[in-house]
Amino acid sequence: xxxxxxxxxxxxLDELKTVVKSLGMPQFTAKQIAGWLYQQHVGGIDEMTNxxxxxxxxxxxxxxxxxxxxxxxxxxxxxxxKYLFPVADGKFVETVYIPEHDRATLCVSCQVGCKxxxxxxxxxxxxxxxxxxxxxxxxxxxxLPERETLTNxxxxxxxxxxxxxxxxxxxxxxLTADYGYAWSPKRITVSSVxxxxxxxxxxxxxECHVAISMHSPLPEQRRxxxxxxxxxxxxxxxxxxxxxxxxxxxxxxxxxxxxxxxxDTMTHARExxxxxxxxxxxxxxxxxxxxxxxxxxxxxEQRMESLRDYLTKHGVFTTIRAxxxxxxxAACGLLSTAKKNEDLKN
Length: 346
What we know:
single chain, alpha/beta
């Protein structure tokens, strides 16, 4: 039985050096391969023309580039595109391309399903089916048709980044390294509900922006919305963040989905101000994209504007995030759930 070839996509420069050494190739070949992968985005090893034919053949005996195109997409009238990418074991993840004026943001996934099981999240309803490799994370960028237009990447798709921290850090290393995409870490935001130990490690080992899913400043209520509150409370998360400097280029933000009559009151606004006092940060208020079998009504525009105005007036810079892709499978998890259900029927 022929051994399955391994993917080069997702390997760091050090890992590529190990590959070329094992194949008896010159050490400098590793940097050449990295250039072809992360700067030229080649489709195959035979395109790496500054590597000798003999060494290309040697490399191709055991490795492939490993890029996989999306298998489906949904296009919104506002320009948003949701792609479905294949990953290991016949599973799928979603990636959302969001163009806006002179910016183009890509929302990437890091897991199939999610362990966090937040009440309002379709991905959590799927259960957890596995973490993506660094290559599978990067493939969402590598194989994206609009790749050349990207200005920002957010790890806000399916899965909890801190629950797959090693692969998220490897992916962000390649995105920011000179041998890789050479992006500024300030173009990348990684989200989290707050995972004890992992969030601190991310803050120490990465310079990327951090976005915390808050959704309620009240621990008891947040626990009902987000079971992860039991492991690391929002007060612990904020206390940790206050140990870091966000007064320069690195940014800290909080995501806050507004539910009518649930977390959109002035009591909540006052508690947010109290909680975030002394932390340089911003709050992004988000409209709720309804998902099946979840009876949570979204707050109306007037209530969201009142929240924004109160928070801003009391020193917490706050924006209302524009809602995108409403006419397609907008919320995380809907497109991959539809594909999963289709496969089960077949």
